[in-house]
Protein backbone atom coordinates (compact mmCIF):
# COMPACT_ATOMS: atom_id res chain seq x y z
CA UNK A 1 0.00 0.00 0.00
CA UNK A 2 2.87 2.38 0.75
CA UNK A 3 4.23 2.11 -2.81
CA UNK A 4 0.75 2.82 -4.17
CA UNK A 5 0.38 5.90 -1.93
CA UNK A 6 3.87 7.13 -2.86
CA UNK A 7 2.96 6.94 -6.56
CA UNK A 8 -0.30 8.90 -6.22
CA UNK A 9 0.03 12.47 -7.51
CA UNK A 10 -1.09 14.70 -4.67
CA UNK A 11 -2.61 18.11 -4.17
CA UNK A 12 -2.98 19.73 -0.80
CA UNK A 13 -5.41 22.51 -0.08
CA UNK A 14 -4.93 22.89 3.66
CA UNK A 15 -1.38 23.62 4.74
CA UNK A 16 -0.39 26.57 6.93
CA UNK A 17 3.07 27.59 5.79
CA UNK A 18 3.95 28.70 9.33
CA UNK A 19 2.96 25.17 10.45
CA UNK A 20 5.63 23.67 8.19
CA UNK A 21 8.37 25.31 10.28
CA UNK A 22 10.64 22.41 11.28
CA UNK A 23 12.57 22.91 14.54
CA UNK A 24 15.97 22.65 12.80
CA UNK A 25 15.11 25.52 10.45
CA UNK A 26 13.47 27.47 13.29
CA UNK A 27 16.65 27.33 15.37
CA UNK A 28 18.74 28.23 12.31
CA UNK A 29 16.66 31.30 11.48
CA UNK A 30 16.46 32.32 15.16
CA UNK A 31 20.28 32.21 15.33
CA UNK A 32 20.57 34.23 12.11
CA UNK A 33 18.23 36.87 13.56
CA UNK A 34 19.90 36.78 16.99
CA UNK A 35 16.69 35.69 18.69
CA UNK A 36 16.70 33.11 21.46
CA UNK A 37 13.99 30.48 21.72
CA UNK A 38 12.87 29.31 25.18
CA UNK A 39 14.11 25.73 24.50
CA UNK A 40 17.63 24.34 24.91
CA UNK A 41 17.63 22.64 21.52
CA UNK A 42 15.60 21.04 18.76
CA UNK A 43 14.84 17.92 20.83
CA UNK A 44 13.54 19.97 23.74
CA UNK A 45 11.28 21.89 21.37
CA UNK A 46 9.96 18.67 19.79
CA UNK A 47 9.24 17.29 23.25
CA UNK A 48 6.92 20.26 23.80
CA UNK A 49 4.74 19.12 20.88
CA UNK A 50 2.35 17.20 23.14
CA UNK A 51 -1.04 18.78 22.58
CA UNK A 52 -4.42 18.08 24.11
CA UNK A 53 -6.38 20.66 22.09
CA UNK A 54 -6.04 23.26 19.35
CA UNK A 55 -5.01 26.12 21.67
CA UNK A 56 -1.99 24.18 23.05
CA UNK A 57 -0.70 23.93 19.52
CA UNK A 58 -1.52 27.52 18.56
CA UNK A 59 0.49 28.87 21.49
CA UNK A 60 3.63 27.16 20.14
CA UNK A 61 2.75 27.97 16.52
CA UNK A 62 2.69 31.73 17.22
CA UNK A 63 5.86 31.50 19.29
CA UNK A 64 7.62 29.62 16.48
CA UNK A 65 6.65 32.03 13.72
CA UNK A 66 7.89 34.98 15.76
CA UNK A 67 11.50 34.34 14.66
CA UNK A 68 10.55 35.09 11.01
CA UNK A 69 11.60 38.63 10.10
CA UNK A 70 13.15 38.98 6.67
CA UNK A 71 12.01 38.18 3.14
CA UNK A 72 14.71 35.48 3.08
CA UNK A 73 13.23 33.90 6.23
CA UNK A 74 9.84 33.50 4.53
CA UNK A 75 11.53 32.19 1.38
CA UNK A 76 13.53 29.61 3.37
CA UNK A 77 10.41 28.49 5.24
CA UNK A 78 8.38 27.98 2.07
CA UNK A 79 11.06 26.41 -0.11
CA UNK A 80 11.80 23.85 2.63
CA UNK A 81 8.10 22.90 2.67
CA UNK A 82 7.95 22.59 -1.12
CA UNK A 83 11.07 20.44 -1.24
CA UNK A 84 9.83 18.07 1.46
CA UNK A 85 6.26 17.82 0.12
CA UNK A 86 7.49 17.33 -3.47
CA UNK A 87 9.45 14.29 -2.23
CA UNK A 88 6.02 12.81 -1.39
CA UNK A 89 4.74 13.53 -4.90
CA UNK A 90 2.94 16.77 -4.11
CA UNK A 91 2.16 18.40 -7.47
CA UNK A 92 -0.17 21.22 -6.49
CA UNK A 93 -0.62 23.21 -3.26
CA UNK A 94 -2.81 26.02 -1.99
CA UNK A 95 -0.84 27.42 0.90
CA UNK A 96 -2.34 29.38 3.80
CA UNK A 97 -0.46 32.21 5.42
CA UNK A 98 -1.35 34.31 8.47
CA UNK A 99 -0.27 37.92 7.76
CA UNK A 100 -1.60 39.21 11.08
CA UNK A 101 0.82 36.88 12.88
CA UNK A 102 3.61 38.89 11.26
CA UNK A 103 2.35 42.43 10.74
CA UNK A 104 1.39 42.56 14.44
CA UNK A 105 5.13 42.07 15.18
CA UNK A 106 6.21 44.84 12.83
CA UNK A 107 7.00 42.69 9.79
CA UNK A 108 5.71 44.33 6.60
CA UNK A 109 3.06 42.55 4.53
CA UNK A 110 5.33 43.01 1.48
CA UNK A 111 8.16 41.13 3.24
CA UNK A 112 5.92 38.13 3.93
CA UNK A 113 4.35 37.91 0.50
CA UNK A 114 7.65 38.67 -1.25
CA UNK A 115 9.42 35.69 0.31
CA UNK A 116 6.50 33.32 -0.21
CA UNK A 117 5.95 34.22 -3.88
CA UNK A 118 9.66 33.93 -4.67
CA UNK A 119 9.64 30.41 -3.18
CA UNK A 120 6.54 29.51 -5.24
CA UNK A 121 8.31 30.59 -8.45
CA UNK A 122 11.40 28.54 -7.56
CA UNK A 123 9.33 25.49 -6.55
CA UNK A 124 7.78 25.39 -9.99
CA UNK A 125 11.23 25.36 -11.63
CA UNK A 126 12.96 23.05 -9.15
CA UNK A 127 10.21 20.58 -8.19
CA UNK A 128 7.61 20.83 -10.98
CA UNK A 129 5.12 21.80 -8.29
CA UNK A 130 2.56 24.57 -8.74
CA UNK A 131 1.33 26.54 -5.75
CA UNK A 132 -0.99 29.42 -4.92
CA UNK A 133 -1.51 31.41 -1.72
CA UNK A 134 -4.59 31.82 0.48
CA UNK A 135 -4.54 34.68 2.99
CA UNK A 136 -6.12 33.76 6.32
CA UNK A 137 -7.59 36.08 8.94
CA UNK A 138 -7.02 35.18 12.58
CA UNK A 139 -10.43 34.69 14.15
CA UNK A 140 -9.27 35.46 17.73
CA UNK A 141 -8.73 39.05 16.51
CA UNK A 142 -11.63 41.33 15.69
CA UNK A 143 -13.25 42.00 12.35
CA UNK A 144 -11.76 45.52 12.15
CA UNK A 145 -8.28 43.98 12.22
CA UNK A 146 -9.27 41.63 9.39
CA UNK A 147 -10.65 44.62 7.43
CA UNK A 148 -7.33 46.46 7.83
CA UNK A 149 -5.47 43.34 6.72
CA UNK A 150 -7.62 43.07 3.61
CA UNK A 151 -6.95 46.75 2.82
CA UNK A 152 -3.22 46.13 3.19
CA UNK A 153 -3.38 43.03 0.98
CA UNK A 154 -5.40 44.42 -1.92
CA UNK A 155 -2.41 46.04 -3.69
CA UNK A 156 -0.99 42.46 -3.90
CA UNK A 157 -4.27 40.91 -5.04
CA UNK A 158 -2.68 39.04 -7.98
CA UNK A 159 -0.51 37.10 -5.55
CA UNK A 160 -3.25 35.16 -3.73
CA UNK A 161 -6.42 33.38 -4.83
CA UNK A 162 -8.49 33.11 -1.70
CA UNK A 163 -9.27 34.29 1.78
CA UNK A 164 -9.61 31.96 4.76
CA UNK A 165 -10.36 32.02 8.48
CA UNK A 166 -8.23 30.18 11.04
CA UNK A 167 -6.85 30.17 14.62
CA UNK A 168 -8.83 29.47 17.84
CA UNK A 169 -12.27 28.25 16.83
CA UNK A 170 -14.58 27.90 19.84
CA UNK A 171 -16.11 31.26 20.79
CA UNK A 172 -15.16 32.82 17.44
CA UNK A 173 -17.96 31.90 14.99
CA UNK A 174 -17.66 32.67 11.28
CA UNK A 175 -20.57 35.12 11.55
CA UNK A 176 -18.26 37.49 13.46
CA UNK A 177 -16.53 38.10 10.11
CA UNK A 178 -19.53 38.43 7.81
CA UNK A 179 -18.71 41.93 6.54
CA UNK A 180 -15.06 41.40 5.69
CA UNK A 181 -15.86 38.14 3.90
CA UNK A 182 -18.64 39.83 1.91
CA UNK A 183 -16.06 42.38 0.78
CA UNK A 184 -13.52 39.64 -0.03
CA UNK A 185 -16.14 37.81 -2.11
CA UNK A 186 -17.10 41.03 -3.90
CA UNK A 187 -13.40 41.56 -4.68
CA UNK A 188 -13.45 38.20 -6.47
CA UNK A 189 -11.61 35.99 -3.98
CA UNK A 190 -12.49 32.39 -3.27
CA UNK A 191 -13.54 31.78 0.32
CA UNK A 192 -12.45 29.00 2.66
CA UNK A 193 -13.09 28.66 6.37
CA UNK A 194 -11.89 26.44 9.21
CA UNK A 195 -15.10 25.10 10.72
CA UNK A 196 -16.02 22.04 12.72
CA UNK A 197 -12.45 21.26 13.79
CA UNK A 198 -13.32 21.76 17.47
CA UNK A 199 -16.38 23.95 17.00
CA UNK A 200 -20.01 22.84 16.57
CA UNK A 201 -21.91 22.07 13.34
CA UNK A 202 -23.49 25.55 13.59
CA UNK A 203 -20.11 27.03 12.64
CA UNK A 204 -20.10 24.93 9.46
CA UNK A 205 -23.61 26.21 8.61
CA UNK A 206 -22.39 29.76 9.16
CA UNK A 207 -19.32 29.22 6.97
CA UNK A 208 -21.63 28.07 4.18
CA UNK A 209 -24.59 30.41 4.57
CA UNK A 210 -22.99 33.58 5.95
CA UNK A 211 -19.43 33.56 4.58
CA UNK A 212 -20.31 31.78 1.31
CA UNK A 213 -17.45 29.29 1.69
CA UNK A 214 -16.22 27.46 -1.42
CA UNK A 215 -14.54 24.83 0.77
CA UNK A 216 -14.69 23.86 4.43
CA UNK A 217 -11.40 23.30 6.25
CA UNK A 218 -11.84 20.22 8.50
CA UNK A 219 -15.64 19.96 8.84
CA UNK A 220 -15.46 17.00 11.24
CA UNK A 221 -18.31 18.08 13.50
CA UNK A 222 -20.68 18.14 10.52
CA UNK A 223 -21.13 14.42 11.15
CA UNK A 224 -23.16 15.32 14.26
CA UNK A 225 -25.88 16.90 12.08
CA UNK A 226 -27.41 14.78 9.32
CA UNK A 227 -29.16 17.77 7.70
CA UNK A 228 -25.74 19.37 7.36
CA UNK A 229 -24.24 16.16 5.95
CA UNK A 230 -27.02 16.09 3.31
CA UNK A 231 -26.37 19.73 2.46
CA UNK A 232 -22.59 19.23 2.11
CA UNK A 233 -23.12 16.12 -0.03
CA UNK A 234 -25.74 17.79 -2.25
CA UNK A 235 -23.44 20.78 -2.82
CA UNK A 236 -20.37 18.53 -3.38
CA UNK A 237 -18.71 20.85 -0.89
CA UNK A 238 -15.01 19.95 -0.56
CA UNK A 239 -13.80 19.22 2.97
CA UNK A 240 -10.08 19.59 3.58
CA UNK A 241 -9.62 16.81 6.09
CA UNK A 242 -6.39 16.54 8.13
CA UNK A 243 -6.02 13.13 9.79
CA UNK A 244 -2.71 13.51 11.66
CA UNK A 245 -3.75 16.97 12.85
CA UNK A 246 -7.02 15.61 14.24
CA UNK A 247 -5.13 12.83 15.98
CA UNK A 248 -2.38 15.06 17.44
CA UNK A 249 -4.92 17.65 18.65
CA UNK A 250 -7.01 14.89 20.26
CA UNK A 251 -10.01 15.42 17.98
CA UNK A 252 -9.92 11.64 17.55
CA UNK A 253 -8.48 9.25 20.18
CA UNK A 254 -7.02 6.88 17.58
CA UNK A 255 -6.52 6.99 13.83
CA UNK A 256 -8.58 3.86 13.42
CA UNK A 257 -11.68 5.87 14.41
CA UNK A 258 -10.84 8.83 12.18
CA UNK A 259 -14.01 9.94 10.31
CA UNK A 260 -12.47 10.08 6.79
CA UNK A 261 -13.95 6.70 5.79
CA UNK A 262 -17.35 7.53 7.30
CA UNK A 263 -17.36 10.84 5.42
CA UNK A 264 -16.77 8.99 2.14
CA UNK A 265 -19.50 6.48 2.94
CA UNK A 266 -21.89 9.41 3.51
CA UNK A 267 -21.08 10.79 0.06
CA UNK A 268 -18.95 13.71 1.24
CA UNK A 269 -16.23 15.24 -0.91
CA UNK A 270 -13.07 14.45 1.07
CA UNK A 271 -9.55 15.71 0.39
CA UNK A 272 -6.51 14.76 2.50
CA UNK A 273 -4.11 17.38 3.85
CA UNK A 274 -1.35 17.95 6.39
CA UNK A 275 -2.47 21.19 8.13
CA UNK A 276 0.74 21.87 10.12
CA UNK A 277 3.12 19.08 9.12
CA UNK A 278 6.10 20.12 11.26
CA UNK A 279 3.97 20.05 14.40
CA UNK A 280 1.77 17.03 13.69
CA UNK A 281 4.37 14.56 12.48
CA UNK A 282 3.65 14.24 8.80
CA UNK A 283 3.42 15.77 5.34
CA UNK A 284 0.65 15.04 2.85
CA UNK A 285 1.93 11.60 1.84
CA UNK A 286 2.30 10.65 5.51
CA UNK A 287 -1.34 11.60 6.05
CA UNK A 288 -2.44 9.33 3.20
CA UNK A 289 -0.32 6.50 4.63
CA UNK A 290 -1.75 6.98 8.12
CA UNK A 291 -5.34 6.55 6.96
CA UNK A 292 -4.42 3.79 4.49
CA UNK A 293 -2.92 1.89 7.43
CA UNK A 294 -5.61 2.49 10.02
CA UNK A 295 -8.88 2.67 8.06
CA UNK A 296 -10.52 0.09 5.77
CA UNK A 297 -9.96 2.16 2.62
CA UNK A 298 -9.71 0.63 -0.84
CA UNK A 299 -7.15 1.69 -3.45
CA UNK A 300 -10.03 3.30 -5.39
CA UNK A 301 -11.01 5.36 -2.35
CA UNK A 302 -7.42 6.53 -1.82
CA UNK A 303 -7.11 7.42 -5.49
CA UNK A 304 -10.44 9.26 -5.37
CA UNK A 305 -9.36 11.38 -2.40
CA UNK A 306 -6.10 12.24 -4.17
CA UNK A 307 -8.02 13.23 -7.34
CA UNK A 308 -10.46 15.23 -5.22
CA UNK A 309 -7.59 17.50 -4.17
CA UNK A 310 -7.10 18.51 -7.80
CA UNK A 311 -10.84 18.73 -8.49
CA UNK A 312 -11.34 21.12 -5.54
CA UNK A 313 -8.33 23.34 -6.27
CA UNK A 314 -8.82 26.95 -7.35
CA UNK A 315 -7.15 26.45 -10.74
CA UNK A 316 -8.29 26.98 -14.29
CA UNK A 317 -9.65 24.16 -16.44
CA UNK A 318 -6.45 23.68 -18.48
CA UNK A 319 -4.32 23.31 -15.35
CA UNK A 320 -6.87 20.94 -13.84
CA UNK A 321 -6.90 18.78 -16.97
CA UNK A 322 -3.08 18.64 -16.93
CA UNK A 323 -3.12 17.57 -13.27
CA UNK A 324 -5.82 14.95 -13.73
CA UNK A 325 -3.86 13.44 -16.64
CA UNK A 326 -1.24 12.45 -14.04
CA UNK A 327 -3.70 9.80 -12.81
CA UNK A 328 -3.63 7.93 -16.12
CA UNK A 329 -0.65 5.92 -14.86
CA UNK A 330 -1.89 4.96 -11.39
N1 LIG B 1 -5.36 23.40 12.73
C1 LIG B 1 -5.55 24.72 12.79
N2 LIG B 1 -6.75 25.20 13.17
C2 LIG B 1 -6.95 26.51 13.25
N3 LIG B 1 -6.02 27.41 13.00
C3 LIG B 1 -4.82 27.00 12.62
N4 LIG B 1 -3.72 27.69 12.30
C4 LIG B 1 -2.77 26.80 12.00
N5 LIG B 1 -3.23 25.56 12.13
C5 LIG B 1 -4.53 25.65 12.51
ZN1 LIG C 1 -5.70 24.40 9.44
List its traits.
alpha/beta; TIM Barrel; eight-stranded parallel β-sheet; 14% strand; binds zinc ion
| The top level CATH class name | Alpha Beta
Number of strands: 8
The proportion of residues in beta strands is: 5-15%
Dominant shape:
globular
Strand order of the largest sheet: 1-2-3-4-5-6-7-8
| Helix count from the secondary structure assignment | 17
Q: State the helicity in percent bands.
A: 40-55%
- CATH T-level fold name: TIM Barrel
Average the pLDDT over all residues and give the rounded result.
98
In N-to-C order, the SSE pattern is: HEHHHHEHHEHEHEHEHEHHEHHHH
CATH architecture: Alpha-Beta Barrel
Ligand catalogue: adenine, zinc ion
Structural domain count: 1
Largest sheet: 8 strands, parallel
Evaluate the radius of gyration: 18 Å
Low-confidence stretches at least 5 residues in length (pLDDT < 50)? none
Query: What structural class is derived from the secondary structure elements?
Result: alpha/beta
At the fourth level of CATH, the homologous superfamily is Metal-dependent hydrolases
CA distance, first residue to last residue: 13 Å
Site (Important for catalytic activity): 218
Active site: 197
Binding site for Zn(2+): 14, 16, 194, 275
Binding site for substrate: 276
Can you offer a commentary on this structure?
Helices cover 48% and strands 14% of the residues. The protein is of the alpha/beta class. The protein has one domain: Metal-dependent hydrolases (TIM Barrel, Alpha-Beta Barrel). It has an 8-stranded parallel β-sheet with strand order 1-2-3-4-5-6-7-8. β3, α8 (143-153) and β4 form a beta-alpha-beta unit. The chain is globular, with a radius of gyration of 18 Å. The relative contact order is 0.15. The model has no long low-confidence stretch (mean pLDDT 98). The structure holds adenine and zinc ion (ZN).
Amino acid sequence: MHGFVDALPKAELHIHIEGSFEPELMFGIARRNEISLPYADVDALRRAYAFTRLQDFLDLYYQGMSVLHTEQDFYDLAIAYFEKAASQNLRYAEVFFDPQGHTSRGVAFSTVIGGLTRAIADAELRFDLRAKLILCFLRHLDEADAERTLDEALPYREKFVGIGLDSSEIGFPPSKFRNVFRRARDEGFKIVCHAGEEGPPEYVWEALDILGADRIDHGNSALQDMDLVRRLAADKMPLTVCPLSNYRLCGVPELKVHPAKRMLDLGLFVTINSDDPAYFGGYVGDNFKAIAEHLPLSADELRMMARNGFLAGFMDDDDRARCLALFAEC
